[in-house]
Amino acid sequence: MIPKALIFDVFGTCVDWRSSVAGLVEKHLPTCDGFAFADAWRGEYQPAMKRIRDGGRGYVALDDLHLENLDRVLRHFDIQVDDRPALNTAWEKLDPWPDVVPGLMAIKDKAIIAPCSNGSIALMTRLARYAKLPWDCILGAEIAQDYKPKPAVYLASCAALRLEPAQVMMVAAHNDDLHAARAAGLMTAFVARPKEHGPDQTTDLTPDANWDIVAQDFLDLAAQI
């Protein structure tokens, strides 16, 4: 079946968060190892969301979780920052992988395209403006008031488009994201991003299941659908 909509993981799949955050950190904190700081900041990402997914805390937008996580990382690095909110906007200024914008434009000719990210609507909107991501709309965690890989996030995105899950394809560079989407009834597409975590990355280098599409990049994905 040809999907009527494709929804995309963003951090890692569409944008190079690690290099982008590292570069911006070094502009704000010239004496800091930007990559070490970016890795530590990202390392707080899943634990912060897990407390919400597990019911230990109500929904909090990722912008606010990023700021809380930033405070933890600053304490770990023993760094003082005068304007923490300005540094926190690093997550709105992430560079896309080279194939992403032309690939999304090609896919958009065939189907609806939207992010299904854990980022908030505000974060995804500002990031789209910065990176020139041509989304038709913004979907994901905020409309579900929960975080991936909870089924509600995928299903809320489908419902917002008034489409059945089987009519929607989830695109991600992360196998666990696709396992959750498939369990919720969506089609799946895997696009590897072997440099997401740097030169020593060991995870998600290859698909670990028989996904509906395995593509080299977004242009290949556009050709396959």
TrEMBL record:
InterPro entries assigned to the protein according to its UniProt record, in alphabetical order: 2-HAD (IPR006328), HAD-like_sf (IPR036412), HAD-SF_hydro_IA (IPR006439), HAD_sf (IPR023214), PGP-like_dom2 (IPR023198), S-2-haloacid_dehalogenase (IPR051540)
Protein's UniProt keywords contain Transferase: no
EC annotation from Swiss-Prot or TrEMBL: 3.8.1.2
Catalytic activity line of the entry: an (S)-2-haloacid + H2O = a (2R)-2-hydroxycarboxylate + a halide anion + H(+)
A Pfam family of this chain: Hydrolase
Keywords: Hydrolase
Domain of life: Bacteria
Keyword Hydrolase carried by entry: yes
SUPFAM superfamilies named in the record: HAD-like (SSF56784)
Function: Catalyzes the hydrolytic dehalogenation of small (S)-2-haloalkanoic acids to yield the corresponding (R)-2-hydroxyalkanoic acids.
Entries under NCBIfam families matching the protein: HAD-SF-IA-v2, HAD_type_II
Family per record: Belongs to the HAD-like hydrolase superfamily. S-2-haloalkanoic acid dehalogenase family.
PANTHER family associated with the record: HALOACID DEHALOGENASE, TYPE II (AFU_ORTHOLOGUE AFUA_2G07750)-RELATED (PTHR43316:SF3), HYDROLASE, HALOACID DELAHOGENASE-RELATED (PTHR43316)
Record's protein name: (S)-2-haloacid dehalogenase
